[in-house]
Design brief:
alpha/beta; 3-stranded antiparallel sheet; 9-stranded mixed sheet; Enolase-like, domain 1; homodimer; 16 helices; about 15% strand; TIM Barrel
Chain lengths: ~425, ~425
């Protein structure tokens, strides 16, 4: 295999206007999706591209943090870097002055995520394989070396992580069949907050026709009656054999969340997502107990493995929606996936990357860690901007075959 | 009283080199303290100055976020703004696109803190009174209007907060005596990590002579024997009648923290500060139980009221070190102080402002909320840069008398 030296790191502030109403929810007035892009250029002409999602203003702040954090990458060989990436990730996360701005959350952590994702993309490209295959082909020892397990050793240390991979190696072949069939998806784009009832109805019918079997509706309106009306409508449209989920995007305080989750439970959703503030661990515990067997999902705003460890240890969540564009990239996503497996919780990512990297990671999680097959969120609005957009048909993500992490953006897509 | 219209908001990236070794701890290589400054200029020539602390690189990222967040302030009257500041704070914290970068943590929250602190400084100056007097002179209803209680209503809503103030109003006079005697301080600057044993010895003796009765030592060295040697030394120097505290600055994972906190407990510290990662709520619960009667303190990296609510509800901390340069400024500091009182926990701030604003807030907390008199951290390194540096003598902060929040920096102090 050929090694490459990173010669420069650049960033770009890529912004994509959304169609009217798309991306809207109870909290964010989303008119555009933006990527704070980290790009690694090498001596061989090969480039690594990392992305994290933001919602507009502030994207340039993340780009600035990428510049500050990534200086030390220049001159490093990608193989040397990835042979001990866990240590490198920790050093970046514990940057002697930037750490103060988190630690391990907010703008500096998003910057680390983008850089990390660029490193993995470059590594997979340099080996000429898609990310899922790169990860599956590493030995257990090599794989665990890309993880920073600091502060979670009480539940997951290196030895335990290696043992987990080894225990599941013999049975891998049976799970590799999924590479032929693809990974199931679910459609978030039918139920944006600002879509009219008619539009939700029309899009849901269309997604049903395409073969999706799971649908998500945004809730947390100023008018609670609107939430309940639309929830009833979605259940009726989907029928009792399909799966529906509701997503409140942190809209409610605890008393309102308890009341509204009980109301919405009547429509038998699989989960209610982000019912309240993502920092409110105890509220999630209380809600999980109050609305069982309906389940609580969250993760798109849970910033790091230490927080996920706390959510897992306290049984606060049933679905772990970790996002490799929120935690410290692919590396910390994997750490959280290991911990979720230990606590027997499915990983169902939020796709700040529009599913581009997460499709790879779902194959890895199933095959290497024996995570049960769940489904992966699908948001189609940016697909035209990717060089290799995820291929989703009949409600299923097919296995990506191009080298890398599927993060390359078309040249004219970037600012 | 005269009202003023905010005519412009500007920021500056103010950096102050520290003397060798000062500010050093187990995690941060601190060579400079920096303030991301927000400055409000008004039609009357009066200015409000807000500050938050950072440790160097990244200060300009916070300044950029201040610019993005503060646009809407221009043209507002300070009295109108402060008459409903809680709503305003919530709207800024829930900015439709910048919220994504937190929420309520990291760079965007630091920016909100600096802006908020500038608003309170301007408000106090416009009324010609020091911050503590401004706050004490507000009616309970007016005071509670400066708070954003969203997401903490399950423990503190407006009615409860107003009741708390009313209940304590009759007994205020007895507590106002502290305005004559001043507020006790403790000295952090004797025990920085990189100071030699000899220097710690010399500084501790000097602080004892000055009248301080409480001293803090940084721990969390690479060599654990060094921590134990210096802890023993400080206890011997201080004698058994003085108070000592140890501060690990998040250095240990949970197993190491359990072991080291048990070892350090032998020297009878009042508290052990930041033993592990600030996001690890459950680790703090476990540590608090394991090392009682020695207590756990933390807060300088606990970003918001929702997190503090969780730490309080789960009895994870005995001392609440909330810092108005970490949470959303003076407003969220007050919210946390209300909650801490409800849970009967002392507020002992970390002083990212070098004690300048917190001296005012300690007088308010004692007089209005009946918080017991604790002590306030004292870090002297930047005092020459303030227009009105805190006056600390014989180990006591005297009551500030100049109008405002004591945040004005000398003109030549800023970049």
């Amino acid at each position: 295999m050929h090694d490459f030296i990173i010669q420069s790191v650049s960033t770009s502030d890529a912004r994509f206007p959304l169609p009217p109403g798309a991306g809207s929810d109870s909290i964010h007035e989303t008119a555009e999706y933006c990527f704070a892009v980290a790009r690694l250029k090498t001596d061989g002409g090969l480039q690594g591209t990392g992305i994290v999602l933001t919602l507009g203003q502030g994207n340039q702040v993340v780009c600035k943090a990428i510049e500050l954090l990534s200086e030390r990458l220049v001159g490093t060989s990608i193989e040397d870097l990835m042979a001990d990436f866990g240590r490198f990730s920790r050093e970046m996360a514990d940057h002697p002055s930037l750490r103060w701005l988190g630690p391990h959350k907010g703008v500096v952590h998003l910057a680390l995520a983008s850089i990390t994702n660029a490193c993995f993309d470059l590594w997979a490209k340099s080996r000429g394989v898609p990310l899922w295959k790169l990860l599956l082909d590493l030995s257990p020892e090599q794989l665990v070396r890309v993880l920073d397990l600091s502060y979670v050793e009480d539940v997951l240390d290196e030895k335990r992580a290696i043992d987990m991979l080894r225990e599941k190696q013999a049975s891998r072949a049976s799970r590799e069949r999924i590479l032929q069939t693809g990974y199931p998806g679910y459609d978030t784009s039918v139920g944006w907050m600002d879509y009219s009832d008619d539009k939700v109805r029309e899009l849901t019918k269309c997604a049903l026709d395409q073969g999706f079997y799971a649908f998500k509706l945004k809730v947390g309106s100023a008018e609670e009656s609107r939430d309940l009306r639309r929830a009833a409508m979605l259940r009726e449209l989907a029928g009792n054999d399909k799966t529906i989920m509701f997503d409140a995007n942190q809209h409610w305080n605890l008393p309102d969340a308890l009341r509204m989750c009980r109301e919405l439970s009547k429509f038998s959703p699989l989960w209610i997502e982000e019912p309240t503030h993502p920092d409110d661990l105890l509220a999630h515990v209380e809600l999980s107990e109050a609305i069982a067997p309906v389940k609580i999902a969250a993760g798109e705003h849970i910033s790091n493995r230490v927080l996920f460890k706390n959510f897992l240890k306290s049984s606060a969540l049933s679905f772990i929606q970790v996002d490799c564009t929120r935690v410290a990239g692919i590396s910390e996503f994997l750490t959280v996936s290991f911990m979720a497996k230990l606590f027997n919780r499915p990983v169902v990512p939020h796709v700040g990357d529009m599913g581009q990297m997460h499709q790879h990671l779902m194959f890895f999680n199933h095959i290497a860690l024996d995570h049960e097959v769940a489904f992966l969120e699908h948001i189609p609005h940016l697909r035209k901007h990717f060089v290799h957009p995820a291929k989703v048909s009949a409600g299923v993500y097919s296995t990506p075959q191009d080298p890398g992490a599927s993060t390359d953006l078309k040249v004219n897509a970037e600012a």
